[in-house]
Design goal:
11 helices, mainly alpha
């Protein structure tokens, strides 16, 4: 490019990779704020976080044109909030594991999950956007419904964090950019298609291309990054 910057860079020169580091640092600050003893009791897989689940799609949908500092702060804070929500859901999901030792896990999982739920909601509330708060509540509602369905019926689909938080997270992210509200659902559906792993090879190839066709130009490289790391 003439200016030597990646197309994924914002107006402030931040690439999506750099913004992911902002989100990870913010998430780490939230995680260490919980009582160290309670955190220590969590199962090891939950204490050692891997890749960020939904932050890439939030940093993509939340990039406006032109970008500004407020937009950067908002999309990073929303990403941290949704990652916290994902952790809360994973913690509570441990209670559904038939092999879990509930005598030692139940109280810890409930308290820790509730803490992360509350903190994620607090971060969204701080953004002072009623529509965003409603969308965030819908994420929690949908996730809870999937958990309840799984508990009531063994054959019900298991909870898929990336699918639920990614899809509804995109809808949350559209409220950061009002001009995209009518397009948010189409983008969410197109992104969801990229997650298909059991469909035909032609469907897997078509998914990313459909997403490329409808996202705003300034977001295109970010969406390509998000689908590559999904």
């Amino acid at each position: 490019m003439p200016n030597g910057r990646s197309k994924s860079a914002s107006a402030h020169g931040h690439t999506i990779e750099q913004e992911l580091e902002f989100v990870r640092a913010g998430l780490d600050r939230e995680l260490v704020s919980i009582d160290a003893g309670l955190h220590y009791l969590l199962p090891k897989p939950l204490r050692l976080r891997g890749k960020l689940v939904c932050a890439p799609v939030i940093l993509a949908i939340g990039l406006p044109h032109p970008d500004c500092h407020r937009a950067l702060v908002d999309r990073c804070q929303l990403a941290v909030a949704l990652e916290l929500l994902g952790i809360a859901l994973e913690v509570h999901h441990q209670l559904l594991d038939p092999e879990a030792d509930l005598d030692s896990l139940e109280q810890t999982a409930i308290l820790t999950g509730d803490y992360y739920f509350a903190r994620s909601a607090q971060l969204v509330t701080q953004m002072r956007n009623p529509q965003l708060l409603d969308a965030f509540a819908e994420v929690l509602k949908q996730a809870s419904e999937q958990h309840l369905a799984h508990m009531a019926e063994v054959r019900a689909p298991g909870f898929e964090t990336a699918r639920v938080l990614g899809y509804h997270g995109i809808l949350c992210g559209t409220w950061l950019r009002p001009e995209l509200n009518l397009e948010g659902l189409a983008i969410a559906e197109a992104w969801l298609a990229t997650l298909a792993t059991k469909d035909s090879e032609s469907c897997r190839r078509a998914g990313p291309h459909a997403l490329d066709d409808i996202v705003p130009d300034q977001q295109r490289e970010r969406w390509q990054f998000a689908t590559a790391v999904r």
